[in-house]
Amino acid sequence: MTPNNAAKMIRIVTYGFIAFAVVWGLAPYSSISEPSRLLLDLLSLPFGDAPANLTQSEMWLSSIGAGLTAAICIMLLGIVAPAVQNSDRRITKVTVWAFIVWYIVDSTGSIAAGVPSNAFFNAILLVAILIPLCSVKFEQQSQQS
Length: 145
Prior knowledge:
Elements: H1 3-24, H2 34-43, H3 56-85, H4 89-112, H5 117-135
Helix pairs in contact: 1-3, 1-5, 3-4, 4-5
C-alpha cells in the first residue's frame, strides 16, 4: 500500500473511531444517552440484557473513555496520517505499538471484568487500524527510521 493510500485508510478508520467516541460520549446525558446505552449493551453481549439506565460509574468511565478516544483520533488525523503520508517510519512503528498496548490492556481488562465480547470488538478495531499501518510500503530513500 502506498503511503498516500495508507494515510487515506487511516483517516477513514479514524472517522469510524470518531463516530464511536461521539456515541460513547453521550452516556452521561440521560436525555440523549440511549445511543450510548445501546452501544454498551452491544459490546457486552448478549445484546438486550443491559439495564434501562447506566450507573454513575458507567457514565463517568464512558466520558473518560470517549474523551481519550477522541484525543487519539485527533492525533491520528493530525500527526499519524500525515506522518505515514510523508513516509515517517518512526511514528508509524510507535503507533503500531501504541495500538497493540491498547488492545492488550483493554481486552485483558474486559475479560477480567467478565465482558470478553469487548475483546472481540477490540480485535476488529485493531485490525482496521493495523492494516494501513503495517502494509504501507515506504520508499527506500526515506531518512526517518
